[in-house]
């Protein structure tokens, strides 16, 4: 793949000297909860300059930190920014105590409640669609009904899929959104997930760094690359194992 590097090759280049090294998660550091070659070495070499900036919307930063640590990649929750959790944090600041129809994992539901949301699919003020492996036809029907009624629906991230351990596409929120949009052609009320630059800018602000002091490692130019350019951050495309055999994902929802 032109213009891309294996993760191990990053350690031999000048990129690790950046003040802030941001990295995508799926397809870059892990594949289906399995560390990819070079991920642990990168974390050890970069140390406290490493930040995960991911469109993940199934986990909280605390939960993901614990899981990664158990796999050999120790990274505190404070240096993990996830699209799903950050969407909830942003909305909680704008709509404190709002009634929320949340289509997400139990971990995300617990996080929403900790932020003061009242979970309510009957009469919500707004709705949020995240990735939930348990998402069912009844959930889709309810989400369609809410969108048809005019309830604003926020999309945590537009990715149609992320790569599994063997390169097989795993459905993401963009695929769920496509099902919704097929019935009710509406645009998302908002989305801070990549390709929007919000997550990268939040990481820079938390790190106290300027865009030209950072590099972003990602595997998808259409999301990671676009977000990096919008944030003014240098982008380095990572080639995950087996990437040569995969066709690029298409049909990304627009935020």
How is the secondary structure organized here?
Blueprint: E1 4-5, H1 7-10, E2 20-23, E3 30-31, E4 34-35, H2 39-46, E5 50-54, H3 61-71, E6 80-82, H4 83-94, E7 99-103, H5 106-114, E8 118-119, E9 126-129, H6 137-149, E10 153-155, E11 161-163, E12 169-171, H7 173-183, H8 198-207, E13 214-218, H9 221-231, E14 234-238
Parallel strand pairs: 1-14, 2-5, 2-13, 5-6, 7-8, 7-9, 9-10, 13-14
Antiparallel strand pairs: 3-4, 11-12
Helix pairs in contact: 6-7
Task: Describe the protein's architecture and organization.
The chain has 255 residues and is an alpha/beta fold. The chain folds into two domains: 4-83 and 193-245, Rossmann fold (3-Layer(aba) Sandwich), CATH 3.40.50; 85-183, Rossmann fold (3-Layer(aba) Sandwich), CATH 3.40.50. It is built from nine helices and 14 strands. The protein has helices at residues 7-10, 39-46, 61-71, 83-94, 106-114, 137-149, 173-183, 198-207, 221-231; strands at residues 4-5, 20-23, 30-31, 34-35, 50-54, 80-82, 99-103, 118-119, 126-129, 153-155, 161-163, 169-171, 214-218, 234-238. Strands 1-14-13-2-5-6 form a six-stranded parallel β-sheet, with helices on both faces. A four-stranded parallel β-sheet has the order 8-7-9-10, sandwiched between helices. It has a two-stranded antiparallel ribbon with strand order 3-4. Strand 13 (214-218), helix 9 (221-231) and strand 14 (234-238) form a beta-alpha-beta unit. Helix 6 (137-149) crosses helix 7. The chain is globular and about 55 Å long. 45% of the residues are buried. Mean pLDDT is 90; it is low at 245-255.
């Amino acid at each position: 793949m032109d213009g891309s590097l294996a993760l191990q090759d990053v350690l031999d280049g000048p990129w690790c000297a950046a003040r802030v090294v941001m990295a995508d998660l799926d397809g870059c550091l892990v594949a289906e909860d399995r560390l990819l070659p070079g991920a642990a070495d990168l974390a050890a070499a970069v140390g406290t300059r490493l930040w995960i900036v991911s469109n993940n919307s199934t986990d909280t930063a605390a939960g993901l930190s614990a899981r990664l640590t158990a796999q050999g990649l120790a990274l505190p929750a404070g240096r993990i920014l996830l699209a799903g959790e950050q969407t909830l944090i942003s909305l909680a600041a704008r709509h404190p105590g709002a009634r929320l129809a949340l289509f997400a994992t139990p971990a995300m539901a617990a996080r929403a409640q900790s932020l003061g949301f009242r979970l309510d699919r009957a009469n919500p003020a707004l709705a949020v669609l995240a990735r939930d492996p348990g998402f069912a036809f009844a959930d889709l029907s309810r989400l369609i009904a809410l969108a048809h009624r005019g309830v604003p629906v926020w999309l945590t991230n537009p990715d149609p899929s992320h790569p599994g351990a063997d390169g097989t596409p795993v459905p993401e929120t963009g695929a769920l959104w496509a099902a919704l949009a097929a019935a009710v052609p509406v645009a998302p009320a908002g989305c801070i997930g990549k390709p929007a630059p919000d997550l990268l800018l939040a990481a820079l602000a938390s790190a106290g760094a300027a865009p030209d002091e950072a590099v972003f490692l990602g595997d998808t130019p259409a999301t990671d690359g676009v977000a990096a350019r919008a944030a003014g951050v240098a982008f380095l495309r990572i080639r995950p194992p087996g990437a040569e055999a995969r066709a690029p994902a298409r049909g990304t929802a627009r935020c």
